[in-house]
Amino acid sequence: MLPFNLHIPILSKLRSLAFFPSQKFALHVTMKTYKPNGRRFIISSFFFIIFLCILASINEIRFDSFLMLGRCAFSPTPNSNSSSATDFLSVNSSSLSTNNEIRILIGILTLPDQYQKRHFLRLIYGTQPPIMDAKVDIKFVFCNLTKEDQKVLVALEIMRYDDIIILNCQENMNKGKTYTYFSSLPDLFSVSDDQPYYPPYHYVMKADDDTYIRLESFVESLSPLPREDLYYGYVIPCPSMDPFVHYMSGMGYLVSWDIAEWIRESDIPKSHLEGPEDKVFGEWLRDGHRARHRYNAKWSMYNFPEPPTRCTHELWPDTIAVHLLKNQEKWIQTLNYFNVTKDLKPSKLYHIP
Known about the structure:
Elements: H1 4-18, H2 20-74, E1 90-92, E2 102-109, H3 115-126, E3 134-142, H4 148-161, E4 164-166, H5 177-188, E5 203-208, E6 212-213, H6 215-222, E7 230-233, E8 235-236, E9 247-248, E10 252-256, H7 257-265, H8 267-270, H9 277-287, E11 293-296, E12 301-303, E13 321-323, H10 328-337
Parallel strand pairs: 2-3, 2-5, 3-4, 7-11, 12-13
Antiparallel strand pairs: 1-3, 5-10, 6-13, 7-10, 8-9
């Protein structure tokens, strides 16, 4: 029999050998216990990524808001005395059109390259005061662009002012440009969300780019007139006062909207396009038995007084339009006569004697 003190090491050794498989089992269990920790890590990483995405979205929103704030801060402040960029040459009694007001379109026939002339006319018409119960839109009208510089410069004008109509035609004076203008209007200004009223314009006008129109006097002369089958202008020949004899001068003549629709539909204008455009226009109406209402605006419309002819008249207060302003000197003389700068406000920023 072994001594008692020898039993303990032997028993310990035996126990260690006996429980060796249990150690393998214990190791196996320990490895299993790490799997829940792995899941926690994956789940934690997933939620952390979501948190980063949310944080990035919040920052993006804040950045966009900052950009919008910056745009507002550096945008030009609206001026109550000037028209909007999208409707630069629209002279209105209010910003919203109503069905009760008189609506007039003035199409100034010009050429694509006449950039300076258009900018000058924007000054002339853009500084005229709003007219009560009236909307007057002024558009510059020419045929298709033919030069690379026109495609850039005219596009910039449209982006800034939105006051240009480009007709589908080759540039000309007396070979159908006027027909293309009037016949295109019903399609260009058909009823839509932006243009809910019919007719979109009660009257449409063709004017030369060397004609100065005093809009308030012009609208006042139209107010009592019929809004259908109307032909308005300066009667030719110059000594005549009878609007049914011949035709209205090309300086500026106006018709009611229904006549523009008739021009689009009738075969009479289509078969007679060439010739002095104002004379040809009058012949359309004669042959089509149109314009039973006619208004002769002579001598409120006339040619510039110099050089004197049978068609000229001295500048006078009862003026609607002055024609043949072929140079800056004549324009300045006319503008000075009508005192167009009388509303200039005093300021420390300038001194104009």
